[in-house]
Structure formats: structure tokens, C-alpha cells
Inverse folding.
């Protein structure tokens, strides 16, 4: 398979289907999450090799706390394991790590790990790899609104100056371009509270592949589909204008 001609600037992936992958194999759901970590590793490597600038992966939603304690514990354990096992390679690949999400609700050692990884890679100029972890889009938007309201109340901000651009600067993703491609695996057709503001004009791609089966070829295939899409941003395509 050749390299896709027109790369998106920012690919965001809703990594879904670990549980069903495990169920098909009569394995516990945790085994699906473990296999999902392998798919993360392979996808990150492939994205780096392709020269993608921004990759954002939805690893744990603010609603995923509703799952059984044992499953939440397993997911937290895998998050720790991934950082321990893959940080050196990520550093070597000049990846810059960011974690977006609530932070205050995860275990203190994970908070420290997140801060360390961000510090350690802050000067890297390779791919921006962002994990959405304890992330919820509505929560993110409400927090930004709260911050702006506070600033207005204190007289530090004129409400008339609030524009979409200013608002976007208050989101976790202020350093990143908006995703132009959002992929969801496992055949579900919804965003599940992922990057709601940021995805306003993203191309959405829903694939049936279960996340643990997602690999280099699946990523390349998704990028090829993106390259074939026509984006208009509310205007007309060039042929219609001519
Ligand atoms: C995605 O897989 C991983 C997380 C949400 C953390 P799921 O665990 O949602 O897998 P399914 O949807 O039950 O198959
Ligand atoms: C979305 O998947 C969250 C992640 C992929 C981390 P879910 O499996 O939690 O979403 P729903 O419950 O099917 O909407
Ligand atoms: Mg799911």
C-alpha cells in the first residue's frame, strides 16, 4: 500500500471495541484492553513513520468511571504499564506527549506520571501525541465557560470579546489544530462526548474494525479515505464556483 497523498493535520481516534474483541474470544474484557494497548503501540509507530503531525487517542472517558471497579482498575493499570514500557521509545521518536482530561480524579501516581511525561517530552518537535484520559467534551466546554465567566466577573475580560477563537484557547487542546479526521472503531456511530467543540468540521470515519485489530494498514486505509473526501467548510466546491 502506498503512502496516502494528502495527510490530515490532526487525526483523533475513538478507540472502541476492546470488550467485544475479548468476548469473541471468550476472554475477559481486560484481555481486550491489553490487546488494545498493542494496537495503540502499532498505531503510534505507524503515525510517526507516516509523518503525521498530531494524533489524539481517546483512552478513557469521564463516563467510563461508571464501569465496574475491576475494569476501571485494569484500565488504570494498563495506562501505567503503557507509560512505563513505551516512554523511552516515544522520547527517541521525538514525540511530544500531552494528556487532556480532568486529572484531579485519577490516582496521584498517575498524575505524577502524566506530568513527568509531558515535562520530559516538552521540547520534542516530532509528532504531538495526545491521550484523552478522564476526558469529557461537555465538561471541557463547561470548564472553559466557567473560566471566562469568572474573568468577566472580576473585570479581567469584556464579554463582548468572546469569540470562537478565544473560547478555543480555553480548551485543553489550545496548542493543537482542530482534528480534521475523527475515526471511531467497532462500528458504533457516535462521538461519546469526544472533542465536541473541536470536531465541528472534522471528517468522521466509522470503521467496523475492533480497536485491538486496528493496525498500520487500517490507519493507512483511513488516511486514504480521508484524502478522497471533499471538504467545503460551508462554501461551494471549486467546480461549482468556476
Ligand atoms: C474501548 O473499548 C475502551 C474504553 C472505552 C476504555 P470498550 O471497552 O468500550 O469495548 P466495547 O465497546 O465494550 O466492545
Ligand atoms: C468511548 O467508548 C470512550 C473511549 C473509547 C475511551 P465507550 O465504549 O465508552 O462509548 P459508549 O458507551 O459506547 O458510547
Ligand atoms: Mg465501547
Amino acid at each position: 500500500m502506498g503512502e496516502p497523498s494528502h495527510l490530515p493535520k490532526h487525526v483523533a481516534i475513538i478507540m472502541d471495541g476492546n470488550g467485544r474483541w475479548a468476548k469473541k474470544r471468550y476472554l475477559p474484557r481486560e484481555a481486550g484492553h491489553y490487546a488494545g494497548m498493542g494496537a495503540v503501540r502499532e498505531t503510534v509507530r505507524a503515525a510517526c513513520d507516516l509523518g503525521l503531525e498530531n494524533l489524539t487517542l481517546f483512552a478513557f472517558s469521564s463516563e467510563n468511571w461508571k464501569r465496574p471497579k475491576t475494569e476501571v482498575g485494569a484500565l488504570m493499570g494498563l495506562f501505567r504499564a503503557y507509560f512505563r514500557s513505551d516512554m523511552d521509545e516515544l522520547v527517541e521518536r521525538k514525540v511530544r506527549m500531552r494528556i487532556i482530561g480532568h486529572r484531579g480524579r485519577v490516582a496521584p501516581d498517575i498524575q505524577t506520571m502524566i506530568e513527568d511525561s509531558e515535562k520530559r517530552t516538552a521540547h520534542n518537535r516530532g509528532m504531538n501525541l495526545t491521550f484523552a484520559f478522564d476526558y469529557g467534551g461537555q465538561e471541557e466546554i463547561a470548564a472553559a465557560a466557567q473560566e471566562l465567566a469568572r474573568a468577566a466577573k472580576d473585570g479581567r475580560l469584556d464579554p463582548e470579546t468572546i469569540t470562537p477563537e478565544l473560547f478555543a484557547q480555553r480548551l485543553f487542546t489550545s496548542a493543537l489544530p482542530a482534528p480534521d479526521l475523527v475515526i471511531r472503531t467497532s462500528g458504533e456511530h457516535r462521538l461519546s462526548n469526544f472533542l465536541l467543540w473541536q470536531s465541528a468540521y472534522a471528517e468522521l470515519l466509522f470503521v467496523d474494525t475492533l480497536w485491538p485489530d486496528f493496525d498500520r494498514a487500517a490507519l493507512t486505509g483511513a488516511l486514504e479515505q480521508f484524502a478522497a473526501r471533499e471538504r467545503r467548510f460551508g462554501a461551494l466546491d471549486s467546480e461549482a464556483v468556476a
In short: The beta strands are 10-14, 54-61, 96-100, 128-135, 181-184, 203-206.
